[in-house]
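Render this sequence as a predicted structure.
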Amino acid sequence: PGQPGVYRGQARLTTEITDEARPFNVVRAGTRAAVQVAPAERQGQPVWTIHNGVSEFVVAPGFGPSVVAWNLDGDNQLFSYFPKPEGFSFVYPWFGGIHALLMPADRMFWEGMLDRDVAEAEPLQATDASGLVWQGVRLRTRPSTPAVRDFQVELDFTTLGESRLLRFVYRLRNLQAAEQPVRMGCNVAGRL
């Protein structure tokens, strides 16, 4: 089968003392179809779009930074306040979408400290250990906030051709020779 999906199989082991069959599943996460990655502008802000033939992802380097849209079958699967952060319950600013967090280990900020800087963005193509070629965008920033300025943050948002998957890799580099405790994470605001 050439389309993404879950396929079932059965493995059989026959020896002199046993004859066993076990079911298994194989997930085809995507195809070799083209993935289009390009800079664009939406509502006055620079964004990067990632089209894979099924899904469109919109990444905003200066808004969070975050993924502000995951368009599938004409509907955005994410809840985002793009292009302007707003309050959400007791949290301000709140961006929504898929938003990475970084803060000192002894403090808690719901939106972290990455929103104070605009991340650099570049197209990315990465082959994983299984030989799958993931394509998308890498965001890179070095926070200006003193409490976390000695870190470099890289965020990879990639997908496969004709896939409903978005792979998110958060890479944090300590730029000091000494240990620095921090808290990192991610907020995901999906539409129900």
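Summary. The first strand starts at residue 5 and ends at 14. The chain has a mean pLDDT of 92.
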